[in-house]
Design goal:
about 270 residues; 6-stranded parallel β-sheet; 11 helices; binds D-glutamic acid
Length: about 270
Amino acid sequence: MSSKPIGIFDSGVGGLTVMAAIKKLLPNESLIYFGDTARVPYGNRCADTILKYTEECTSFLAEKGVKVIVIACNTASAHVFPYLQHKFHFPLLGVIEPGVEAALSASQSKKIGVIGTRATIASDVYAKQLKKRDAATKTVSIACPLFVPLVEEDWLENEVTHAVAKHYLSELAQDNVDTVVLGCTHYPLLKNVIGKVLGSKVVLIDSAEAVALSLKNLLKEKNLLAPLEESHQKKKHQIYVTDLSDRFETIVKRFLKEDIPSVGRVTF
Ligand code: DGL
């Protein structure tokens, strides 16, 4: 048992979808979220830069004394997970593996679509992991770089977003995939628009819930769950960011669906 907090980080605010799922599944845990909002997006950057930024985020959370870190960013998980696991000597959880597992369970045809940032799609990590787990899997991967700024702008349902989704996903809709992995933390907020373009028969995999479940299993396995006697206390979660804009509170509220806990600004 451990009452130390769980660390979660993302390049920006998208990982709050993962934080929300963890908060729901593990209400007894204290959470520290770190969003590198001054340097988002990571998805258009080269692997070296992603590694440097991610290492700084991980060190920040490690210094806060967390018991485990969830890399709630597909781009970071795709590029640096094995490196970080080697460098930091405490449990780490990325978002790729839980998403892959969830996609394989959902897919009947084993023809699976993956959408993500340029860097995630260029890494080919989803296609490789899917193939490794089930050799019969065929993957169609598409980068959708404009989705992140559209979510940040709160354009979740309007005609521009619909046109962009159509542009990116029309081919995928013709490709007979039965499952599509939303391989970016922001994309679950575009589920409606993406679902409209792909059609209702396609299952959309939002890995946030799968990540929360994997985290619960990891904590159980390592005997790190928070002691139960603390469950009646209201958990104090913390959020840290590298840029704190006026719109931040609104964005966080949208993701967490509640008033934000304390927010601190960090500079590297
Ligand atoms: N968090 C990133 C991801 O899940 C999306 C935003 C970015 O490009 O940094 O890939």
